[in-house]
């Protein structure tokens, strides 16, 4: 547990330093070990056992991101005794998985087409026991990679309108996974899309952008949430 706690503290310091470097927070003169920052740490816990997630939770980490649905559902059930856990689905979405995603997660970062948004909304409408809206980020294929999911830049606002019209969904913002060593222009474009979306929709407050390798440039371009896995939990096992 000590290692995970130390890893989380190290990453939060890195985030705070990136915020200071980009002028998003001023250097703190207080005794606070880790300055408060406007960037949330999302711990990516895919392929990691529930025991390690609980260790991270006890170290103060409450937001966790999962890519693989059945694995995630199993862990959510195991850790149901922990209050304040917030689960984020961040993987590609198959249409036949939307019901389980809608019923198990508080956030979905990877909505990239109308069909998925409408199915998530319908499942929640059908669930009379669930009155909590599902927080939605639109995944943008900012690097135009054929191998990655995501809505094209030119279709972001039409998809945003569809999500905003869904009564059981709350449009919170955008998510992207830029290609490795992506040019600065990719981050600038994501930042501009986020700014424009915020101006149009009051509920928008989240730019899920940045991982271990691009944390600094993502924070410098307005990211409000960074997704970190290996640096917290160690190397991942290969997913079969």
Explain what the structure shows.
It is a single chain. With 240 residues, this protein is α/β, with parallel strands linked by helices. The protein has one domain: TIM Barrel (Alpha-Beta Barrel), CATH 3.20.20.10. The chain has helices spanning 2-21, 50-58, 69-78, 98-104, 114-126, 156-164, 184-200, 215-220, 230-233, and strands at residues 40-44, 63-66, 86-89, 107-111, 134-140, 169-176, 206-209, 225-228. It has an eight-stranded parallel β-sheet. The longest helix is centred in the N-terminal third of the chain and has 20 residues, at 2-21.
The fraction of residues assigned to DSSP E strands is: 15-25%
Rg, alpha carbons: 17 Å
Indicate how many domains the architecture comprises. Answer: 1
Full CATH superfamily name: Alanine racemase
Q: Could you say what the CATH architecture is?
A: Alpha-Beta Barrel
Individual helix count = 9
What structural class is derived from the secondary structure elements? alpha/beta
Extended strand count: 8
Described by the principal axes of the CA atoms, the overall outline is globular
Helix and strand element order: HEHEHEHEHEHEHEHEH
As for the CATH topology, it is: TIM Barrel
Average pLDDT figure: 93
Q: Which regions contain 5 or more consecutive residues with pLDDT less than 50?
A: none
């Amino acid at each position: 547990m000590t290692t995970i706690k130390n890893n989380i503290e190290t990453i939060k310091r890195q985030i705070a330093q990136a915020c200071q470097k980009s002028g998003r927070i001023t250097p703190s003169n207080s005794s606070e070990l880790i300055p408060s920052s406007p960037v949330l740490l999302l711990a990516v816990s895919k392929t990691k056992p529930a025991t390690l997630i609980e260790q991270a939770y006890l170290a103060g980490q409450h937001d966790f991101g999962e890519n693989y649905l059945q694995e995630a559902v199993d862990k959510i059930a195991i850790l149901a005794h922990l209050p304040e856990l917030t689960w984020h689905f961040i993987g590609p979405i198959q249409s036949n998985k939307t019901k389980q995603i809608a019923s198990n997660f508080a956030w979905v970062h990877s909505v990239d087409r109308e069909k998925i948004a409408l199915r998530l909304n319908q499942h929640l409408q059908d669930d009379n026991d669930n009155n909590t809206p599902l927080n939605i980020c639109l995944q943008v294929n900012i690097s135009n990679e054929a191998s990655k999911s995501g809505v094209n830049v030119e279709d972001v606002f039409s998809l945003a309108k569809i999500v905003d019209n869904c009564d059981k969904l709350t449009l919170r913002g955008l998510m992207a996974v830029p290609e490795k060593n992506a040019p600065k222009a990719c981050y600038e474009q994501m930042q501009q899309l986020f700014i424009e979306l915020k101006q149009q929709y009051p509920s928008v407050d989240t730019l899920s952008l940045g991982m271990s390798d691009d944390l600094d440039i993502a924070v410098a371009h307005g990211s409000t949430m960074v997704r970190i896995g290996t640096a917290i939990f160690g190397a991942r096992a290969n997913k079969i």
